[in-house]
Input
Amino acid sequence: MIERNAQDLDCNTDTTQVEAALYLFPVPLSDTSSLADVLPSGNSRLLKGIKHFIVENVRSARRFLKKADPSIDINTLSFAVLDEHTSPEDVAPMLAPLSEGHPIGVISEAGCPAVADPGADAVAVAQRKGFKVVPLVGPSSILMALMASGFNGQSFAFSGYLPIDSGKRSSKLREMEQRIRRERQTQIFIETPYRNNRLIEELSHTLPGNLLLCVASDITGTRQNISTRYISQWAKGGYDYSKTPTIFLLFS
Amino acid sequence: MIERNAQDLDCNTDTTQVEAALYLFPVPLSDTSSLADVLPSGNSRLLKGIKHFIVENVRSARRFLKKADPSIDINTLSFAVLDEHTSPEDVAPMLAPLSEGHPIGVISEAGCPAVADPGADAVAVAQRKGFKVVPLVGPSSILMALMASGFNGQSFAFSGYLPIDSGKRSSKLREMEQRIRRERQTQIFIETPYRNNRLIEELSHTLPGNLLLCVASDITGTRQNISTRYISQWAKGGYDYSKTPTIFLLFS
Output
């Protein structure tokens, strides 16, 4: 009987003993990309040792976990949802497993948790309570767009979405132009895909022709296209980014 | 004889045929990290099909290539050096292999090429000439520090090193504080390791106690430590980051 237990324990040793910490797991940006192309294999090994997850969307997190480790038994895992509807007071209780010595994984819908997504709230609570936080390597559309733009990587700013209100929007664009000229700071922002074409058109009309615009589309996907051109060149049209997640970068 | 050649060709098919493009290969941030923990295996597969490299430092690039693919024959590869001493007019000729249909890899000393490093110049030329640029996934200390800080990932700026001149330095710090308050923009910057402790001391004396400072040190290394505390807590001392590469982040 004792021997049998010992054997069972032996079998379980490939479920790695993972130190209690908040692990931030990036996920692929594109459905079409192979995990081996966008994530270190170490991430999947680490996942095997974690039972508690804070996720932006349960369905996509389950799909990712199954892809990362086909042998995983999803039913033994616990999922807490942290999305834009979660109220701040509900975040701290999600970290309870950490207090009991269990590791927690954070998984977003796409890309790196806590960058332009709700995971940051869980990290903030973990930091406040003195828990260890471990970021893992994976695809970030912002960083990969910056790498491939040819723009200044010594100074850059990411601003999320431009304001919708037209007055605020044009003053934001003026401010970005100033920061490019005065601080040599690359300006990075995003738009919802169905508005991408309209945004490029708008930038073509609003900004000086000698500014450079990089349009970085479907990063790591099959239709990946990262093009840096002068505003005056974009003004000529001949593009269609209406269906792909896209990052925009400005510089001179 | 013909058969023999055919066999030779067969043997060479595991040297993948890689499309002509400028590939940006991240490298580990720390000597102690295993490649499987910080790089997708797809990157190494891609490396096998590339003969021409633009590198920040030949010695460290060779070491990385040997680690990524122990079977690699370094002597069959060509290396062009692109570092802070390279003059701008010497960059374009480095892309000659691309015009002849051969892929080129860009390799920095640590982290992601073209982010806070000279590779950006090669990317800018490639974009200007209309060559395809492909960023690959790997560790970025800036992005990983941001993920683990718990700070705003919807709006952030990286400023490189703070100015040395004390007047410019304190006006830069004031400006960062304003951008935190007005724009909710996370402020990210770096310092040379031997000055890290002095910088934290300086920030403790200069900035309001209720600002948050995240110190992200030795990311992916054995001494990795990412701690977010109030300035008033850092002011009490009890830290030593004098020997590890460290990223600093401010937020409120």
